[in-house]
């Protein structure tokens, strides 16, 4: 618990941003340089992963140089009291950064250009090269802080988010099955729950990519790679589950499917078993119910009025198979 005590008070990224800001200002003031531009660069350079900081830093530096160059050029042409100086500096910076595929640095480059203009006066060369130096200080300092200090670990967040995803998707499946056997296909909370579930799973995918980037940039034990692989496998299985669950939620409006009493019991039995996975930690198979639904599908013609019913039963069986393989 000692290695995560700070998370209860403030996030590691916030700590690193504050440290990078302090060190950047310290180095700039020691060199008698205006720290504001370096600080702006340092703040936006602190990314969720060291890889992202380094990768985007490569583009933010040339983008900042472009912004500083245009600020100097248009101040020389129009002076620092003309609105044309600000307008042309911002416009040209954005256009050139976009053309050179430096979009990640466009905001910092434009802000740098705007902030530079009032203080340039006649010191064109000094301002340009001092801004270049401060940008380098900000990028390097923030990059090193992000790489060395408190390397981010997303395992706990991943565990919590994946557990929550599974809890929600099992509950939603159970709810949707009850709606189906009762003949309720109306839009409502089911749709909102599915959208929330999709957003949550996307968050998990993002955290997985962050953790993978971190492991590729730092030396770690094999156990961490194995843990990441396990989390990745769970996430991929959940994605498949949610895909088939979506097919059961997004059904044609005002449709009605007739299930026999035995089919309803089989569907609800499977749904209840799946719903209990989160609390019990295991999947209690329902072979008789699955067999009954399989026989039901075999007796249906997919191209007549039973097409929708066949589709629903297929999706239920696919979800059952996914969980059967996962908990094998």
TrEMBL record:
Top-level taxon: Bacteria
InterPro entries tied to this protein: ArAE_1
Keywords, comma-separated and alphabetical: Cell membrane, Membrane, Transmembrane, Transmembrane helix
Localisation: Cell membrane
GO CC term (a single one): plasma membrane
Protein topology in the membrane: Multi-pass membrane protein
Transmembrane segments: 20-46, 58-78, 132-150
Entry similarity comment: Belongs to the UPF0421 family.
UniProt-recorded name of the protein: Aromatic acid exporter family protein
Organism: Staphylococcus nepalensis
Lineage of producing organism: Bacteria, Bacillati, Bacillota, Bacilli, Bacillales
């Amino acid at each position: 618990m000692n290695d995560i005590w700070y998370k209860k008070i403030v996030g590691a990224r916030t700590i690193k941003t504050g440290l990078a800001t302090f060190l950047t200002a310290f180095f700039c003031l020691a060199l008698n340089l205006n720290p504001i531009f370096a600080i702006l660069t340092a703040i936006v350079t602190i990314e969720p992963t060291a890889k992202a900081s380094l990768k985007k830093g490569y583009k933010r530096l040339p983008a900042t140089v472009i912004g500083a160059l245009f600020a100097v050029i248009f101040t020389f042409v129009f002076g620092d009291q003309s609105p044309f100086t600000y307008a042309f500096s911002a416009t040209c910076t954005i256009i050139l950064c976009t053309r050179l595929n430096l979009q990640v640095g466009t905001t910092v480059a434009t802000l740098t250009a705007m902030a530079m203009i009032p203080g340039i006066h006649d010191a064109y060369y000094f301002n340009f090269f001092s801004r270049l130096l401060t940008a380098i200080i900000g990028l390097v300092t923030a990059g090193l802080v992000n790489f060395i200090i408190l390397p981010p670990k997303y395992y706990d967040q991943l565990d919590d988010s994946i557990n929550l995803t599974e809890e929600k998707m099992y509950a939603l499946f159970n709810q949707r099955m009850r709606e189906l056997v009762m003949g309720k296909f109306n839009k409502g909370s089911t749709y909102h729950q599915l959208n929330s579930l999709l957003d949550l799973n996307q968050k998990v995918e993002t955290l997985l990519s962050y953790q993978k980037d971190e492991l590729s940039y730092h030396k770690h034990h094999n156990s961490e790679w194995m843990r990441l692989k396990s989390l990745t496998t769970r996430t991929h299985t959940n994605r498949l589950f949610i895909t088939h669950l979506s097919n059961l939620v997004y059904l044609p409006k005002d449709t009605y499917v007739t299930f026999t009493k035995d089919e309803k019991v089989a569907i609800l039995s499977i749904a209840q078993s799946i719903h209990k996975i989160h609390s019990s930690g295991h999947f209690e198979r329902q072979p008789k119910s699955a067999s009954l639904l399989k026989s039901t599908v075999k007796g249906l013609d997919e191209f007549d009025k039973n097409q929708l019913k066949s589709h629903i039963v297929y999706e239920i069986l696919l979800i059952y198979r996914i969980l059967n393989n996962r908990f094998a």
